[in-house]
Write a structure and sequence with these properties.
The protein is of the alpha+beta class. It contains 3 helices and 9 strands; from the N terminus they run βαβββαβαββββ. The N and C termini lie far apart (about 30 Å). This is Lactoylglutathione lyase.
């Protein structure tokens, strides 16, 4: 079996709020159905679903690899009107990471890996 892609389905406590959040974060929304939206940025995709399970959402961790963590941080601190939380950028031996909890409790580890 040769895999060429993998896409996660992210739950949403409030589907409309989550759609707005991901658009504000910089993802393009593509309509799929009344209960499912496809988001993309570059060659990266994920689905947002009109489904919520608190245990699943609170244990969902996604890693988003970025080229410039400071640009990502500026985007995150500019998000207004969403029930989110985030931590400052942390230095790790392998790179930098910004922890962002989305409006449904999902955790995004926004990461800039060290080069070389």
């Amino acid at each position: 079996m040769q895999v060429d892609d993998i896409r996660v389905f992210i739950p949403s406590k409030n589907y409309e709020v989550s759609k707005s959040f991901y658009q504000a974060l910089g993802f393009k929304l593509d309509y799929v159905s009344e209960d499912l939206s496809l988001f993309e940025n570059g060659d990266c995709f994920f689905f947002l679903q009109r489904f919520y399970n608190q245990e699943l959402a609170n244990n969902l961790v996604l890693q988003l690899s970025v080229i410039d963590i400071n640009e990502a941080y500026d985007r995150v601190i500019g998000l207004e009107g969403f029930d989110i939380k985030f931590n400052p950028i942390q230095e790790e031996r392998w790179g930098k990471v910004l922890m962002l909890w989305g409006p449904s409790g999902e955790l995004w580890q926004i990461t800039q890996f060290n080069t070389a």
